[in-house]
Amino acid sequence: MTTEAKVGSFSLGALAVLVFIIVHLSGASWEEKGYNIEAVFAHVDGLKAGNMVRYAGVEVGKITGVEPVIDGAKAHLMINKNVKIPHGSIFVVSTDGFMGEKFISILPNSEAENFLKPNDVVEGKSQKSLDDLIARADLVMADMETLLSSLNTIFGDERVQQSFIESAINIKELTANLNKMSLVLARMAVDNEGDIRVMVNNLKLMSANMLNASARVDAMITDFDNNGQTTADLKEAIANLNVTSKRVEHMAASLEGVVTDPKTAENIKVTLQNARNVSEKADKMMTRVSNIKTEFGAELLYHGGERRYLSNADFKIFTNPNSFLLLGVSDIGEENKTNLQIGSGNDKFTGRVGLIESKAGIGIDTKLGEDVKFSVDAYDPNDFRVKLRAQYEFAPNTFLVSQTDNINKSEERETFVGLRKTF
């Protein structure tokens, strides 16, 4: 081989090695390296071609390009062919360190059953940038300056400063006075034990009188529980009796640890026992009075033929489960007819007597099952009238009502339908 041929062969070999090194360093390859995924972000803040793609922190590809689109920026990702990304995975623009290079981080969706395919488009999430943090910090600093300015305006006022100083002095004097008062009280307990003994005797007498009073109130409730008396005064009296007995009990208990005289100590024990008995009786009486229950009902009925509405309201006071007083008004806003009746019965059958639509009369209520109730009212002895009524409870405390007035007078007969609600 001639010298020229040797030099040419060496030059061609060196050129081939150089081309191989360039191709290898650039990452180029003659075979397909992976598949493309497109991720759309609101903003990417410096993301560019060549940046890494990481899946769960592991590098799995490169960014081949970034381009603007209508709703943000689109990044083209080349994912290694052996990497499968689950559907629903989160694509986030992240940064290596505080000022490091941008990259796309993929947070896998462990619950997905399918995987992304080549050329799929996903929606990415952009993390808060340093500019956003700086802007928020500026807002926070502005708010802090406003707050400090306000505080300075308040606490910089000499009158406010003087008030704080005076408050501190007053608190100091108050605590000193409290210490002196506690010493005086302790000394009074020792020096005035005789007076305390008299006071204990008075407490004993007071608790005995309250015990007798509670017995009388108990008897009064037994005698007059069903005579139509209102319960408000009884409740107030019982509540006051209970409060007073507890106060006596507290006073006696506070003296129990101070008094050393045996007779006085025994009187205190008697007082405590009487006060407790009064409290127990008051609680029992309050329970009995609380058994008196009330029920308010309102209804709106409609007469289709005459296009007329009828509104009624009533108030029931149950003195016991089987007796009640009914107060009500029919045809509110028009004729305002009064209903005032007393009734007695059980869950299945009830009788009523009194005023029905401002006229003397009687009424009967009967229940069929748990939801259906029928009522018949006969009233007005001078112009005898009969009213028939049915109601069905289709929801808690809510009823569908049908009512026919003057059923015995064909020319005056009216039928209404509507709703009733009880509370």
From TrEMBL:
Coiled coil feature spans: none
Domain Mce/MlaD: 33-108
Transmembrane portions of the chain: none
PANTHER family reported in the protein's UniProt record: INTERMEMBRANE PHOSPHOLIPID TRANSPORT SYSTEM BINDING PROTEIN MLAD (PTHR33371:SF4), INTERMEMBRANE PHOSPHOLIPID TRANSPORT SYSTEM BINDING PROTEIN MLAD-RELATED (PTHR33371)
Protein name stated in the entry: MlaD family protein
Lineage: Bacteria, Bacillati, Bacillota, Negativicutes, Selenomonadales
